[in-house]
Amino acid sequence: MERNGILSGLKVLDLTRILAGPYCCMMLADMGADVIKIEMPQSGDDSRRFGPFVNGESAYFMNLNRNKRGMTLNLKSAEGKEIFLKLVEKCDMVVENYRPGTMEKLGLDYATLKARNPAIILGSISGFGQYGPYHERPGYDIIAQAMSGLMSTTGWPDGEPTRTSTAIGDVLGGLGCAIGLLAAYVRRLKTGEGERIDVSLVDSVVSGLEVINQIYLSSGRNPQRSGNRYESAYPYDSFKTANGSFVMSCANDKLFSKLCEIMNMPELEADERFCSNKNRVQNHAPMKRIIEDWLADKSADEMVEKLTEVGIPAAPILDIAQVTADPHIADAREMFVPVDHPVAGNMKITGNQIKLSQNPIQFERAAPTLGQHTAEILREYLDVSREELARLSAEGVL
């Protein structure tokens, strides 16, 4: 069933569950790929039981699995396995996020898939990757945040190591796998060859730490928790005013000069502690005290407007309710979109950050109920009869 979108015609078998893999396949589905989410009969993806719920349906699941078709298939049965391999022959990609070794135990390793379809692209997401001393360990987002160094550098200097509120390790892993899959697909269009993509959640967060790693690698200084302050530029932080905090980013000398002008403190530019970005980073504590003393009788909104007017990046610190009502984010950029789910009814889900001029992303399908499209997919891909579908269902294959 061909969909509209920039990836129209791409066929993906989605064996993933919970977050990282579903997020990866969500990106492909949003851009028009025919993503077939395959779940175990009866139980399905664990995240179907994760809150919050709308009319008994998981909003967690519905957000990550929109634009996909859903079917059930028991991959532990010989017949279920064979049906899957027949689907592999007709598809472009398989994506899984089982613990390493599981696909081999199921008899669905890359060599087996490749024997049925030499051009197949297999994407695997796991906690620690497919090889290495830790590869058999289970991995979840909090494990990735802990072992990547992210938690050690997140939070306030006198506080505990802190996990970011969202599952950023899963999101980064999902994005990395999507990029790898699309890169492999471009190569396949040129050569006809398939590929195996191996993405680790821990690796993904390590990569995302970018300059934090370089501080240690280049200077030997072990980065510590620094609150909202940025390690490479200052003033780049949150600042308190008379009625709350806002953020500001003066990442170069030109912007700092504008700030000194607004503050009516030109002498700060000549102060040896603050005359260069390097010096301001080293002397961030006295710099912050000076700025916050100046802000003591001002409001956050007033300062955001004043700084933004002269080109200094500044922003209010919005809560989620404010984000979902923001005219730029929610309305103009369409980051919260309505869908009509067969059980949950009319609801909103988070939109897609990618904006395409010629092939805009469409939210054509709500997330599937368990097994919603099983019959449709098997008739369409494998020409399975109604009688055969009934038999497979009765025998627990579907």
Describe the structure.
It contains 18 helices and 13 strands. By secondary structure, it is an alpha/beta fold. The strands form 4 sheets. A 6-stranded parallel beta sheet has the order 5-2-1-6-7-8, sandwiched between helices. A 3-stranded antiparallel beta sheet has the order 9-10-11. Helix 1 links the parallel strand 1 and strand 2 (34-39). The chain is elongated and about 85 Å long. The mean pLDDT is 97.
| Percent of sequence in beta strands | 15-25%
Number of helices: 18
Provide the helix percentage: 40-55%
**CA radius of gyration:** 25 Å
Q: What is the approximate shape?
A: elongated
Catalogue the unreliable spans.
Answer: none
Q: Total strand count, please?
A: 13
Main sheet strand line-up: 5-2-1-6-7-8
Largest sheet: 6 strands, parallel
How many angstroms separate the termini? 20 Å
Broad structural category? alpha/beta
Average pLDDT metric = 97
